[in-house]
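FAQ: What does a multi-protein file look like?

Like this. Sequence, then tokens, then the next protein.
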Amino acid sequence: MSKKWQITVPGSTANLGPGFDSIGLSLSLYLNLTVSISDKWEIIHLSDHLPQNIVIENHLIYEIASETAARFNKELPPCRIEMKSELPFARGLGSSAAAIVAAVELANLVCQLNLSTQDKLNITSQFEGHPDNATASVLGGLTISAMDDFGHVDTIHVQDLEVSFVVFIPNVELKTSDARKVLPEKFDRHYAVHASANANMLAASFISKDYERVGYYMESDLFHEPFRAKLIPFFDEIRNAAKNAGAYGTALSGAGPTVISIIPTAIEEAFISKMKELFPSLEIILTKADDQGISVTEVIEDVLA
């Protein structure tokens, strides 16, 4: 008998305006790994936008899985991994966080670590450096999180969001490290209080499922969007057009360059049609919040001797 695992991880968007490094939302766009223990390492990319020429030792999945195993004094056995992704790299849709979550789960399975959900939240957020995308990919739904100085993550989990989301993906990459370079090192007290209040109201609006308020506070960020907007193609044009077409609100997805709108489900078809007409150079995708988070399916295969 040969054992395989299928690991499915949702992508995510972070911040949603002022929820900087704290609020994450899983999306129904996925990273899929088919994993089996082997006699040598193989990572096979099956999606066109994933690189074909890779060095195993430099691959994020290998690096994170190996380090996770080492944390528990385990040695990661060689694996064959077939990898498919609907998440373009460096576009603000949580591709790195999804890979980290998948890699931690891979180590959990093949090394029999028996990690709890809290363990996974802590470890993935520690690797990511902040808990927004990672917690959303682990749990699904919307997550509002904090990570303390010891790497422990506390999360409020909101599910069953009764809205749709539309992502506008330009054909350019923007690394989070580059997007952070344009941010101020400090804010004065009055500015910080205002920015923090907007973040609090965004979180409260999501919890109460007041989507009109969600949209308003998504567009009220003071922490990062005023400084990053100049890096994002069509940002102001998308926000204005989306509002005119009935969106509750529009914000950067993570650090960008993808832009995300929250819309009433009832206007999906008309909204997408209008946006594709106005922005033909962008990839525009209608999606929902994923409510499951990471999932693992074990596949047992008969192997003939």
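And here is the next protein:
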Amino acid sequence: MPDLNNIQGDVWPRLPKKAETFYFFSIEDPAVFKQKLAKLVPMITTGQEAKDTRSDLYARKKSGETGLIQLTAINISFSYTGMKKLGKTDIGDDIFSGGQYKDMVTGGLDDPQDWDKFYTGYNGTIDGVFIITGNTLAAVEKTFLHLVQPTFSNGGPTTGMRIVHTESGTVQQDDKEHFGWVDGISQPLVEGLEPATNKPREPRPVPNGVFFIGGDDDYSNQPAWAKDGSFMVFRRLRQLVPEFTSWSGKNCEDPTSMDVIRLFSSRVVGRWPDGAPLDKYPLRAPHDGEPDHPVQKENDFDYGPDVEKQARCPFASHIRQVRPRKDFPDDSQAMIRRGIPYGDWTDIEEKRGGHTLKQRGLLFVSYQSSLRSGFRFVMKEWANKSDFPHDKFAACGGQGPGIDPIIGQVRKYPGKANIPSALGIQEASDVSNRYVDVERFVIPEGGEYFFTPSISALKDELCK
């Protein structure tokens, strides 16, 4: 079982935040950097500290206290080039050592023209990242300027490392991402760290070794010093919100009805915007029409009654493609997600014109003990494969379900997704022949693979 005092808090239970900045750095002098890093280690927020803070926040909220609590937290992760500079080359595999550009761009999924130059080494190699969270971006910046930066300086210029790029995001109202759906609901339960819910339709707890090196069911064969560490994926994903809304209108039965458009787009996502799963509420969100209904952050579903059909939730829907549950009852692909939106909310002018005018999207983060089994498998074998799930051809008219309509990457050839009528498959037939052309609404603009070491690994290995 992972030691909460040894793991970094963003992996589990999550750093409390309303704002977050990723400070990507290059290691200029490894020897000096190690000396400075040793001074930073006591400031890193552990899993236990994050858990205590979150418990305190929940207690304050339950007691009726209002207003933002002044808080910040710090974590650190390293790319393969950073680990190499620190003398550790025995961690990871060819996926980690090759880096995300080689895996996603050279590997044929991402378009190289979409990647920001900063993620291709324009301003220096990205050897690591400081993750700082807080209640505001001003608080985050203050933490960096008054805690992190002075740690790497001698009263003058920063030594040992150099910041080469930053990305910042803020939590949106009701925890929604820019398409308008509550985000971060369907998180896996980590066995040993979280109690089972005892809900028969909710996925069972996942062995902690799927997320933490050295845990139960971890078969990654990493060195002993890496125990309690986790591999982190960072990706900047641009979202084309007006284009997605227009596409939804063009493909639903009545493009003049907002209710019908909402139903169709919810079938594409697999949830209603407030988080309620279509598997439980296929035609109408619970409390629909009530002005102040609570956000339905439900995870109590597994596609069980409909596992061979898609009248309730299409096989190609986003949440079913990336977490298929009973469609693919194997927990080894599960990921812990820690993303945060960036950019302004879509304005009226953009909505009316149907075209994106401002930069917005998601700073995607996931943690897993194996990149090959986690993020990479989900992206390359599930979300971007038109024949997944592999045994659903009969229910889709003889073809595969199609690619994920949200994160599927369409480049040279148009992709398709089997999205049955918004009213579900007619009772006379369990087969859907209805395919829609998929466009790109989420564009990867860069990222990197990192290793998030334990506190003991930082002290005993990376600072030596």
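Q: Is there any per-entry metadata?
A: Some entries carry free-text notes. For the entry above: The chain is about 25% helix and 15% strand.
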